[in-house]
Design a protein that fits this description.
This protein is mainly alpha-helical. The protein has eight helices and two strands, in the order H-E-E-H-H-H-H-H-H-H. Strands 1-2 form a two-stranded antiparallel ribbon. Helix 2 packs antiparallel against helix 3 and helix 6 runs parallel beside helix 8. The two termini are about 20 Å apart.
């Protein structure tokens, strides 16, 4: 093996991919290489900056749902443009947290993220899918269903399908699992209220 897994972590995870080697039970001496897309994390300072800007935009919207949804979409797209497509999942998690903390309805959060995902996916499908996956993993209340209905209305049923799929990874930097059965294994701390599924290391994890 060129590098141990620990050495790879200490040296930083490639933005292209992370190759994990593990022994296959029952197959003596055999190793399998599994390539998992890497997820770039944004710093706490960057997350705070995203949160502050979005919170100000939400407050300026004075409760107008369409304006709030547009602000969420704009903040997500702007952050991805600034920090890179590899950070899309971490950015989505930060946007969700900020919007929820500002008292935005889960319906508006889901719709705003769907608008962002659809726009981003037009140029970078992988980044759009990362947004949808984060909604699947961390979505609360009607965030998931709102994301699905909005992305479908915008012509991207693939994103709607991803958002409704079983959780596999998360970019959350908060503790505790998702609150709904659809969210499964959430951030560090445990699974959703009705679906189980363990927690994982942030900023990303993959269930095998």
């Amino acid at each position: 093996m060129e590098k141990s897994f620990g050495a790879r972590l200490r040296g930083g995870i490639s933005a292209a991919s992370l190759t994990v080697f593990f022994a296959v039970s029952g197959v003596s001496g055999s190793l399998v290489a599994l390539t998992v897309p890497a997820v770039a994390a944004i710093s706490p300072t960057d997350a705070t900056s995203i949160s502050s800007s979005l919170t100000a935009a939400i407050q300026a919207a004075n409760g107008n749902s369409q304006v709030i949804q547009a602000a969420i979409a704009s903040a997500t797209q702007a952050a991805i443009a600034q920090f890179g497509a590899d950070a899309a999942a971490s950015i989505t998690s930060a946007v969700m947290g900020a919007a929820e903390a500002a008292g935005v309805s889960t319906t508006d959060v889901g719709a705003g993220l769907a608008q962002a995902a659809t726009a981003v996916a037009a140029a970078n499908p992988t980044a759009g899918q990362a947004i949808a996956s984060t909604v699947a993993n961390e979505g609360k209340g009607t965030e998931v269903s709102s994301f699905q209905s909005t992305s479908t209305s915008l012509g991207n049923t693939a994103l709607a399908s991803i958002a409704g799929s079983a959780p596999s990874a998360t970019a959350s930097t908060n503790s505790g699992g998702g609150s709904s059965g659809n969210s499964g294994g959430g951030a560090t701390g445990g699974g959703g209220a009705s679906s189980g599924g363990g927690g994982c290391l942030n900023p990303s994890c993959t269930t095998l």
